[in-house]
Give the backbone structure.
Amino acid sequence: MLPKLLHFVLLGLLAQLLRCFLVLSTN
C-alpha cells in the first residue's frame, strides 16, 4: 500500500497535469 504522503503527491501531480491540459485546450 502507498503511504498517504506519496498518494497526495501523486494526486497533486495529476491535478497539475489536468489543469495544464484544460488551460491549453481552452486557449
Summary: Residues 1-27 form one domain. The chain has one domain: 1-27. The radius of gyration is 12 Å.
